[in-house]
Model the fold of this input.
Amino acid sequence: MPYKNRLSKLQSQLKTDSIPALIIDNPTDLFYLTGIELSLGRLVLTADDAELLIDGRYFEACSKTSPVRTKLSNNQDISHLSLQRVAFDSKFTTYHAYKAISKKLNGTTTLIPLEAPVQKIRAIKDASEDKALSKAANLGSRGYQYAISLLKEGVSEIEIATELEIFWKREGASKPAFDINISFGANSSMPHHRAGKTRLKRGDPVLMDIGVTLNYYNSDMTRVLFFKEPSNEMKKVYLTVKDAQEAALSLCKPGAVVGDLDRAARDLITECGYGKNFTHSLGHGIGLDVHEYPILRSSTPFKDVILQPGMAITIEPGIYLSGIGGVRIEDTILITESGYRNLTNLPKELHILEPSEMRE
Done:
């Protein structure tokens, strides 16, 4: 199992950064490091030791499966460890939780805020995560093809979203990775639209931003197709987004700088006259969370992040014309030793829905 290796990497990071101890409360980080699902727990790490504090609900199970020493502690009190300085995740720990920790320590320990201390380790996926992400992406792509088969004039966005969720769960998924975005017509100009009662009509763009959680790991993809012939402007928008994504993908390899990817896509869209209509980042990391480190943008604090083998990211440029429609093309890719592998792996040619693709 990979958990001891992940713990060792984090402990080495603590030693390198001269951090004497770290407490981790984030359930996703706890699962990443131990393989145990906990709604509440605390992992305490030093450079050469680790202890998992859990309450009575989890004690028996954790005692059998935890890769580190387990201690029963209903309030996750760390005062018994006699630490002089201990870091915590300032991005996760609330002020209320911080005060509770401080009160238990009674002034004997200095608390050091660190922003998401596990994020950079989680950004580099190991072999087991590679497989999990690939399986989730495959199921996501199959879901997209299933959703296409349900399209017909008069069907509503929410009907497609509901049927897609049922399909995924029948195939073993735990849930959609996020609220399913099925957008018909002008709704596709809103990047975070959620499926509603709008019904499909001739000439509509159909934007599907969808993802699924399978065995804890997430997929994320977006495709746009057209229900009958689109307008000339929407054709131009589609081809511009496709070219922008290809410009960014062509740079995806170890050593590439995140800011350069974002600029490559954004500059092309701007040159085609749609710069103001690309309103979000180029993409993001993905794994146990849908949105992980790094965010792909050409501004601080992420613009200088360097891509490394094992990073899983999305590339998703878009153009959105208010009241008309929008286009976003999104793939999840894995950075390899020599370039990248596309986990989404679906066609991206301009797609006008044919009657043969629809169910009776």
